[in-house]
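Obj.: predict assembly geometry.
Materials: sequence records (below).
Method: joint structure prediction, all chains together.
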Amino acid sequence: MIEDIDFTFKALSDPNRRYLLDVLHADNGQSLSALCTGMDMSRQAVTQHLGLLEEAGLISVVWQGREKLHYLNPVPLYEIYERWIKKFERTRLKALRDLKTQIEGATP
Amino acid sequence: MSKPDFVYVNYIRASREEVWKGLLEPEFTRQYWMHEQISDWKVGSSWEHVRLDEAKTPDIVGKVLESDHPNRLVLTWAQPKDADNPEKVSKVAFDLRPVEEWPNGPWTQLTLTHSDLEPGSEMEQSVSYGWPALMSGLKTLLETGKI
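Observations (raw structure tokens):
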């Protein structure tokens, strides 16, 4: 289910899927045909990658008439940032502060 | 109809009613948005997104275009100085859909669609960074009771 962070990591584990996300970041809301242009992959392969990204919640879709438009949905990426990146950043900032305190000899 | 600029989706373990309140009521928005929303949420009414200072300084203003509680809310969206400049007025839609097939519910799919943004504008930049963090903050608050 989309809630599962394993899905997000699995979807991100493929370079072609990461590339598709980059393409949508540059130009959001593209149809399958537009996404296939410039991709060195069969239409079927692109469809499969998009399906997996959609299942992982990294892509949201909007129907406009008969055209399905794909949008980058960075919300799960933000969850990864909150869960896996922010806390390490905090540690690094604290280490820098401690180093500064040590060098300058002030009381922490 | 022009295509939307951004479409953000999040799944929140809460009822539509709770998500609706989480988006609009000060006791929630103060915690993850640092703002309050002021309106009676009736179609045609104005709405304001205001700071928590004493003057309640508005940062975003607009009109309520659609209001179908607790399913869909559509607002116009502009900085106060641009409120009368149609090129700088964008549109935000919140769509709330129950997800019945998931266990341990209720689950709500929240879709946020932002359209008619001026290409290359500061607003386009800031909403593309802001919405994912806000949607994630709302989810955390509603699911855990804290931020």
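Conclusions so far: The first strand of chain B starts at residue 6 and ends at 12.
To do: check interface contacts against the pulldown list.
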